[in-house]
Design goal:
- The chain is built from 4 helices and no strands.
- By secondary structure, the chain is mostly helical.
- The chain is elongated and about 55 Å long.
- Keywords: Membrane, Transmembrane, Transmembrane helix.
């Protein structure tokens, strides 16, 4: 494979709809903010030794991961922006379950605190 072919292939992959890049950007931001919140919660757990902070860190991590699952699947595994009906339903279900588990963990951590 020549350099020109490799560059052309990479440029073709970059030509995705605007919605794709918007979704990717939003997911990266959610991952960053969720990761920061999870890290802060974990540091609070280490300082205070209160299990509710540990549960909050888990919750923030699960919510952030649940939001990123679809984009990771599209970009990393599928390699395409377009997903089929059953495939889309399965990945949205997985994403929803992770977000719900994260929110339940946050709810429980607030209840314990």
């Amino acid at each position: 494979m020549t350099l020109a072919t490799t560059v052309t292939t990479a440029l073709v992959r970059l030509r995705q709809p605007t919605e794709f890049w918007t979704t990717l950007s939003a997911s990266v931001l959610v991952l960053l903010v969720g990761g920061v919140l999870a890290a802060i919660s974990y540091l609070a757990y280490r300082r205070e030794r209160d299990r509710s902070f540990q549960l909050a860190a888990l919750g923030f991590g699960l919510v952030a991961t649940g939001n990123v699952v679809i984009v990771v699947y599209q970009v990393g595994i599928k390699g395409s922006f377009l997903l089929g009906g059953l495939e889309l339903l399965r990945i949205q279900t997985l994403s929803g379950v992770l977000v719900v588990l994260g929110l339940l963990s946050l709810l429980y951590s607030l209840y314990r605190y």
